[in-house]
Amino acid sequence: MASSGVALAEPIVLPRRLNWRKVASLTRSYLALAFYLFIAVFPLIWMLMTSLKDDADLVDATVSPFWFHKPLAFNHYVYLFTRTSFVQWLQNTFLIAGLTLAITLAVCIPGAYALARLDFFGAEKLGVGIFMTYLVPPILLFLPLSRLVAGGLHLGNNKLALVLVYPTFTIPFCMWLLMGFFKRVPRELEEAALVDGCNRWQAVCRVVLPLTMAGILTVAIFAFTLAMQDFLYALTFTSSSSEKPLTVGVPTELIRGDVFFWGELMTAALVAGIPVAILYNFFLDYFIEGITGSVK
Amino acid sequence: MNGLMAHRAEPLPARRLGIVRPARINLGRDFGLGYALLSPALVYMLALVGYPFVLALWFSLSNSSISGDEAHFVGLRNYIGLMGDSVFRSSLKNSLMFVFVAEIFKTLLGIGLAFVLLRNLPAKKVIRGFLMLPWTIPVSLSLLGWKWMFDPQFSVINYTGAHLGILHSPLPDWLGQTQYAIAAILTVNIWRGFPFAAVVILAGLTSIPQEIFDTCKIDGAGPLTRWHYVITPIIAPILFIGLIFDVVFTLGDLTIVYLLTNGGPINTTDILPTLSFREGVNGGDLGLGSATALFLFPFLFVAVFVFLRMLRRREI
């Protein structure tokens, strides 16, 4: 991978001029990198600065906004954790994401195993069909689902409604990924276990599952972070503060009418967003592999 | 000959899809067990994706409302009503325009970033982690930072622009004037999506075998020739799949517009998702809201169709 990278970026040069060319192309790369880093990170640095500024400093249009003109203020952080429902939303988010993760694994592990190992009529069509549902966006389903959870299931304004609905977008992708992980376990190992006297259940539990632990963990992180990212369903299904997850609680409850509590908003967005981003980063490679691998 | 060909060609599609045909002993061909293990997933998806989808179709053909009164079949009245509605037409136009412009910029920025990430950089993983932040942070939270940067009074963009002499008074009210609001929405859309485009393109680039580049070097192909005749054809399928996913996510996403402008000023930045939400949830008209969202369906259908075709072509 690294070697093909060098080949792509470097023109063909005579050995004697190599160093000079290398320096020029390295400089270009680093300039480009700096440009991209600036675009990607500036809004977040800005949020961090805002979260640490004194309120009077924030709304003083006469001074440069690029520096601190009052001592660093941690009052936004204190306020957020003591005077708002932030902790409650944090708990809700973890509860919802945790339960979503449990349902996703309970449904996907047996399903993906079947798709990877068992040959039954229509298996490949069903596998593709389940993956295809990933291309049905929530915006097509949120109105009927809101009717279903509020009407038939009596889960109106209840975070459990989200636990029920989130697996609709975690299952397709997790199933697809897990199927790949199961395929990587050589079937000879499983056959050997059967020959040695295990039944199928024991072979799966003692041989296949331990070997796919890394894959299952990846899928678990994936389901967890996806559930933390949702906005539309949470906005539609929950209305009281005690039921909201972070993604909805922060933008709807920290803005009251036309009054924006910028310090608190930025603090909340960072405190909630950065951990999700770090988690997401762990499985990013698998996410890309899942999407692009589907055509490999 | 024929039999041989069939033998060679047949097992491949199955393996590509992850289903390996039974090789020797009793690992495969367990009809009952297969369905039993897959059934929870099937039931879940049928009950909470399939059924709601049918329900959405029914809503769009009825006068269903949140109040729970008896709903009646009204035929295509919702759809016809929408076609005559200027807000709907501008929302549809915005939806398509946002996706089109955003995808172009995301792809261009993504290509550039992918080539940067191909280099052997120190602390590559950490740098990539920072570069991915726009994509990995939940967009409903990072948007708040943008909303603050677009603040009518304390916009850092206006401050910088005015001090550098690029912007002159009256300074733009980013979220309050239509043309600036559109620019703001596009900016956030592109900012959010370009890292994803980059990693998808990177995945394509790293899948190109080194031998191909060696051959190119021997044949004397320059960077442009390589890009045009070698890199593009090879990464095209992956780029295309990434694009399909991103188009679907972007078309269906309500978060950016909802939190930045909520369609304002005066519905000029509305897109189909925000309109559907306002009609269906705030207005309580499930029929109209569902019909609005279902206008996205033809585009999604094309996406799924193309996706399946590419899947098949790669297998055979």
Q: What is the helical fraction of chain A, as a range of percent?
A: over 70%
Based on secondary structure, the structural category of chain B is mainly alpha
What count of helical segments of chain B does DSSP give? 16
- Outline the biggest β-sheet of chain B: none
Task: Give an overview of the whole structure.
The complex is a heterodimer of chains A (296) and B (316). Chain A has 296 residues and is an all-alpha fold. Chain A folds into two domains: 76 residues, no CATH class; 210 residues, MetI-like (MetI-like fold), CATH 1.10.3720. Chain A is 75% helix and 1% strand. Chain A has 15 helices and two strands. Chain A has a two-stranded antiparallel sheet. In chain A, helix 2 crosses helix 15 and helix 9 packs antiparallel against helix 12. Chain A starts with a helix and ends with a helix. The N terminus of chain A is likely disordered. Chain B folds into two domains: 60 residues, no CATH class; 231 residues, Orthogonal Bundle (MetI-like fold), CATH 1.10.3720.10. Chain B is built from 16 helices and no strands. In chain B, helix 12 crosses helix 16. The two termini of chain B are 18 Å apart. The N terminus of chain B is likely disordered. Chains A and B meet through helix 1, helix 2, helix 5, helix 6 and helix 7 of A and helix 3, helix 5, helix 6, helix 7 and helix 8 of B.
Give the topology, please.
The complex is a heterodimer of chains A (296) and B (316).
Chain A: H1 2-9, H2 18-51, H3 55-58, H4 75-83, H5 86-117, H6 123-132, H7 138-152, H8 159-165, H9 167-184, H10 187-195, H11 200-211, H12 213-229, H13 232-237, H14 246-253, E1 255-256, E2 259-260, H15 262-293
Helix pairs in contact in A: 2-15, 4-15, 5-8, 5-9, 5-12, 5-14, 6-9, 9-12, 10-11, 12-15, 14-15
Chain B: H1 2-9, H2 11-16, H3 31-60, H4 77-83, H5 86-118, H6 124-131, H7 133-136, H8 139-149, H9 156-163, H10 178-206, H11 210-219, H12 223-252, H13 255-260, H14 272-282, H15 286-294, H16 297-315
Helix pairs in contact in B: 3-15, 5-10, 5-12, 10-12, 12-16, 14-15
